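Supplementary notes for students who missed Thursday's class. We covered one full example, reproduced here. Read the sequence, then the structure, then the short commentary at the end.
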Amino acid sequence: MSTNRPAGRRRPPAPGQARYTPGASRARQSVERRSAAPLFFLRQLPAWLMPLVLVVLLIAGLAVHGIAGALALCGVAIVLGWLALVSWPRLSSAGRLGRLTVIALVLVVAVVQATK
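Structure (token representation):
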């Protein structure tokens, strides 16, 4: 493994949790297989890094007008959409609606930033 962290510093997988959705459709299995490597990579990073990157992108997207701000916000929406897709089977209806609402809101703000 080519990480800079010592082997003892990695976060272990959540105990008792299946890595894949049991009885999933072929499309779902494909999404989970393709997402496994990036998720395992993110799991090896410090827990604070990914939220920090998203906050920086969000602030940059809100502060910078034009296409650069819109692209930063689209990056946030893509990551949020991917995480929502991966967690979709475990979400309640309210959780699904909340995630879709946040992603739509970020994309609307991205369109507004692109037109400024």
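Commentary. The chain is about 65% helix and 0% strand. The chain has a mean pLDDT of 82. If anything here is unclear, bring it to office hours.
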